[in-house]
């Protein structure tokens, strides 16, 4: 394709040579995009001209203070007349968030008409009560504080750790062959003195039959509670009477503050934004897991800018949530958020791209202990999930029905969930599952239930 120029360029070019495709590209660039005005106005007719309002016909009279809701037909009329004075909320919702408030969600076809907008709280409450719905969001039952229990809580990581170590000293001098270790955790933000502390008391009676592992602070901010339970356990259960009697064939391994940085900073995740209860695996294939639902919910649960409550999109946040629940179902969304994801390092419930350093160091340390016992029970202490103010156990159902019976007997009177129920979800890379991988020496992939 050869194009002859009307006037030659300064450098003497008289012709342009193009392939047919290049020529079409240049032609296509000249085509205006859809719905672009093809007529340009100048002078008094220009869009911002001061006198424009005096020379062009005006739209319909603006209504005074219009009601919150306008029906579809009003809008159509506005469109025919020209630029609408305002667009109804229903139409805005449809346009911006694709929430259709004008058609019946049940039959699809019927057009909905807004009869009234009810804004007064007492009236709303009356209607909801009449329909048998709760007029207010449910509130947690108040829990009276228990002073004796509260005495065990230490919010401050360094103080909690010091108390754990002090109690460890006492146990180490009271019992035989006690092993202790401290895995240092480095921090970029200058927080020092961070350690995952271990205390292992081997079965004192000679025969190693059972092992109890109790871990705390896998989610850092949940550490104060886990640490309190561990220290209470050290005082109440790890006595000479117990360890020489009922626990004579039982070893005890305590892991204190598995995420010490999060404990110190009151954060769930590690400094690398990794959720250790999604990160723990002996199989690197975990970090290639694709959570197909996560990209859908990420923009909603993890906005890339600070939330501005005056911004339009945030004023509609609850509507967007409701619309998503309606589209995908609560269960699918909960699963997408909570199972863990390995795609978005700045997202929530990020499981990392490799084993976090403290777990990589902890593994070899505890493998010999885990493997010295034929039977083990691992309790990982959390506060982020389950019934409030009480012990709530979440177990993966053991394959052996007798093991299940045993757990039910051991924790009789306590609330136990066996990976069932409506609000249950599965997760990958959980800490207790990793302990069982280390114990069996397999890297079998598993999914589990839990916090
Ligand atoms: Zn947790």
Rg, Å, rounded? 33 Å
Given as residue ranges, the uncertain stretches (5+ residues, pLDDT < 50) are 63-81
Strand content: 5-15%
CATH superfamily of the largest domain, by name, is: Zn peptidases
* Quaternary structure classification: single chain
Strand order of the largest sheet: 3-4-6-5-7
Q: How many helix segments? A: 18
Report the strand count: 11
How many domains in all?
A: 4
- Give the SSE string: EEHHHHHHHEEEHHEHHHHHHHEEHEEHE
- Helix content range of the residues, please? 25-40%
Overall pLDDT confidence: 84
How many strands, what sense, and barrel or not for the largest sheet? 5 strands, mixed
> What would CATH call the architecture of the largest domain?
3-Layer(aba) Sandwich
Give the cofactors and ligands.
zinc ion
The CATH class designation of the largest domain is: Alpha Beta
Measured between the Cα atoms of the first and last residue, the distance is: 67 Å
CATH fold assignment of the largest domain? Aminopeptidase
Class by helix and strand content? alpha/beta
